[in-house]
Amino acid sequence: MFEAKIDVSVLRECIETITAIVDEGKIKIAEDGLKLRAVDPANVAMISFELQSDVFDEFRFAAKEKEAESGAEDTSESKAETEIGMDFVKLLGILGIGGRKEVELELDEHAQKLFTRMGSLAYTISLLDPSSLRKEPKVPELEFPVQVTIETEEFRRTIRAAEKIGDHIVLGVDGEVFYMEAEGEMDKLRLSLRKEQLIHLTPGTLHSLYSLDYISAMSKGMSHAESITLNLGKDYPLQIEFEVADGKGKVSYLLAPRIESE
Amino acid sequence: MFEAKIDVSVLRECIETITAIVDEGKIKIAEDGLKLRAVDPANVAMISFELQSDVFDEFRFAAKEKEAESGAEDTSESKAETEIGMDFVKLLGILGIGGRKEVELELDEHAQKLFTRMGSLAYTISLLDPSSLRKEPKVPELEFPVQVTIETEEFRRTIRAAEKIGDHIVLGVDGEVFYMEAEGEMDKLRLSLRKEQLIHLTPGTLHSLYSLDYISAMSKGMSHAESITLNLGKDYPLQIEFEVADGKGKVSYLLAPRIESE
Amino acid sequence: MFEAKIDVSVLRECIETITAIVDEGKIKIAEDGLKLRAVDPANVAMISFELQSDVFDEFRFAAKEKEAESGAEDTSESKAETEIGMDFVKLLGILGIGGRKEVELELDEHAQKLFTRMGSLAYTISLLDPSSLRKEPKVPELEFPVQVTIETEEFRRTIRAAEKIGDHIVLGVDGEVFYMEAEGEMDKLRLSLRKEQLIHLTPGTLHSLYSLDYISAMSKGMSHAESITLNLGKDYPLQIEFEVADGKGKVSYLLAPRIESE
After folding, report:
1. B253 contacts B225 by C-beta, under 8 angstroms
2. For the domain bounded by B2-132, which CATH number is listed?
3. What digits encode the pLDDT tens for the residues C207-257?
4. Smallest CA–CA separation between C129 and chain B, in Å?
5. Which residues numbered 222-251 in C keep a CB inside 8 Å of some CB on B?
6. Which of B216, B177, B217 is nearest to B197 (CA)?
7. Of residues C57, C97, C55, the one with CA closest to residue C250
8. How many CB atoms lie within 10 A of CB B156?
9. What number of helices (H) and strands (E) belong to chain C?
10. By CB neighbour count within 10 A (0-12 exposed, 13-18 middle, 19+ buried), where does B197 fall?
11. What are the tens digits of pLDDT across the range C132-156?
12. Which positions ≥6 away from A192 have C-beta within 8 Å?
């Protein structure tokens, strides 16, 4: 049993962080909230998403009876959760119909449907079969020597500028300076921010190259966050962390590096 | 002789209700105002439109002399009127040029031209030959057991949502509830409004299925009306009535039902 | 050596007057400011553009050393200037990145690059080889019997209206009336403004026909000017003059007439 009520704009903000990476995926519902971990079709980008139940105006969850029965010899470790397959692009379209402040959600596990209700308008979404969706990826164990916290808008603006130049972007730290650099056949773009122009910076000397396509997509997903934290290494994956839903939602994007040809 | 002056935005509002159904048609001009009745090329939707002369800032009309002459033995029933063929899409484009508050219209029946003047800008439109246009349709005699008056925005929003789902929509009344329902292969949308959530409702139990394409078009045509009245029957045409131009313009759309395959 | 600082919106306004005619061209930099003269690829339209150095917040220019050396026997007539080849469409894109008020420019003549810096964002543009660009056109000697100064928005609105009708437009003066006239197969548009509705008018009787494509493009380039001056003759080129950058920038468009087939 899952029933919940949430502000439409908060839920949209959350779903938009997901659709930046995947169109559909498996969401786990538990007593403490929602969770998702998914990789993009090309296995280049990953999202880990968590939303606390207390961001909902109402949130009621109980595991399936079958589970409850078998739970006779339950250990306290095992946590009851339900997994549903969701078309996030469709859900976003529904939430975008507009004119409503709040949406009610109600899961019919038996029929594999999610009822959504915004005012007098009810929308029944057929869930996707979780077994038809990609397996939840393992999060690789990574250690990031450098951490940079930057205003989201500064980052996004630079990404938009870089899109005019080429297909790749370098993210790096040189001493106490964080930089983003894109080079085309003719032109070159460079953003340089000193430690005092950033919210946080671990000094260091390293950089990695990434595909702009993916960072551009992520850049759209983070538009509601005020700041983001970049975890960086040398020729290493990029991890971008930020909060949504007034800090009750946590998003982490992971992006594989590109090999520099030079 | 026809000369008139009218607020540009009021005339646009009126023409937009017409272009929702037809691109061109025959308008009848008489002393008491303008009238049009037209069907769409596929014979599925019809519009009846009337605009009172007193919505115009100026309105001068006199029947053609030829008519006046033959009017020697005029009976008081026969009303003098002039019919002109108009490309409404073009007229809407002209009115949309912008920056002007008022438009003057002047008919040159002999040359079959309509002069429009907005400030210093004069636009001469060649009229269409009325005999080249479709005959004015007869309005079928219909009796509607149920009448529902609803806020236009509520109706339009539901139509926009339904477009994401399928090609058809059911409009019906179930006791004291009015509903709109669209079903796709996977999903289902339903708006339900109780009598107290509506401006008016005749209780009953009936519904009909309609093509969304046409209702979507009509939905655009009604955007300036605050509320609309739906006249419904069982597997019966839908009539949508509303007012424009501060109540001086009356529009009635008629739409043939679709047969439910089930 | 060329280094300058300027308000981003002012520079955009200037570049937009240029991209209305050409995508790329040669700009001459001298102590007193920037200059450009260019013709469109079809040799139908020409732009002369001048921007005074005092519109810049900072402006430092010195001719190349080589020139300075050979300048030993310099005559006071010869003015030191540097010519650079610029892709204006690209520059406009860079200035449009947004969020910055001021842009710094710095020319590296040796490397043929222009450094632009907006806040922490540096963008290096490779210059175009001036020898690969079209030669600067000679401005023909023209005498215009009639001059009309009109509010830009009135002119632009009429051009937009004319685009709905045909491919050409007549600009003319009939006594103390300035008019613009476009004729299609079916319709006709005419703007007539009496002397008192204009900022200035030289009375006369003449008109010329022009291609709307070019005037439409010019019309976009003049959008930041409050008024424009049209210099007209009988079957003669059209010259449109206006100011940008608070009067510190002067633009002159020249457009060849079309021969009236009638």
Report:
1. no
2. 3.70.10.10
3. 999 999 999 999 999 999 999 999 999 999 999 999 999 999 999 999 999
4. 43
5. none
6. B177
7. C55
8. 20
9. 5, 18
10. middle
11. 998 889 988 999 999 999 999 999 9
12. A177, A178, A179, C120, C122
Residue contacts between A and B (CB atoms, under 8 Å): 39
Q: What is the CATH number of domain C2-130?
A: 3.70.10.10
Tens of pLDDT, residue by residue over A15-68, are 999 999 999 999 999 999 999 999 999 999 999 999 999 999 999 999 875 544
- What CA–CA distance (Å, rounded) separates C122 from C114? 10
What is the CB neighbour count within 10 angstroms for residue B175? Answer: 11
| Contact assignment for A125 to B153 by CB distance below 8 Å | no
Q: Assess A191–C contact: CB distance below 8 Å, yes or no.
A: yes
Taking the Cβ of residue A261 and every Cβ of chain B, the question of whether any pair is shorter than 8 Å is answered with no
What pTM, to 2 d.p., does this model score? 0.86
Instruction: Give partners of A (≥3 CB pairs < 8 A).
Output: B, C
Query: Does A70 have pLDDT greater than 60?
Result: no
Distance between A39 CA and the closest CA of chain B, angstroms: 25
Give me the residue spans of the domains in chain A. Answer: 2-132, 146-255
CATH number of C146-255: 3.70.10.10
Searching chain B, which residue's CA lies closest to the CA of residue C185? B126
Q: Does B189 touch chain A (CB under 8 A)?
A: yes
Same CATH fold assignment for domains C2-130 and C146-255:
yes
Q: Phi and psi at residue A96, in whole multiples of 5°?
A: -85, 0
Of residues B90, B97, B124, nearest to C157 (C-beta):
B97
* Position B185 confidence tier, pLDDT thresholds 50, 70, 90: confident
* Residue C167 forms contact with B (CB below 8 Å): no
Classify residue C101 by its DSSP letter.
Answer: S
Name the CA radius of gyration of chain C, rounded.
20
**What are the beta bridge partners of residue B42?**
none
Query: What residue in A sits closest to C119 (Cα-Cα)?
Result: A191
Does B220 touch chain A if contact means CB atoms closer than 8 Å?
Answer: no
Residue burial C181-201, b: 16+ Cβ < 10 Å; e: rest: bbbeeebbbbbebebeebeeb
Nearest to C191 among B93, B94, B120 (CB): B120
Give dist(CA A255, CA A236) in Å, integer: 9
* Interchain CB distance below 8 Å, A99 and B153: yes
Q: Which of A90, A100, A120 to mutate to test the interface with B (most CBs of B within 10 A)?
A: A120
Which site among C91, C108, C121, C132 would you substitute to test the A interface, given the most A Cβ atoms closer than 10 Å to its Cβ? Answer: C121
Are C187 and B90 a contacting pair at CB < 8 A? yes
Q: What is the full DSSP assignment across C76-92? A: SSS--EEEEEEEHHHHH
Maximum average pLDDT range among A128-132, B64-68, B227-231: B227-231
pLDDT digits (tens, 9 = 90+) for A180-222: 999 988 899 999 999 999 999 999 999 999 999 999 999 999 9
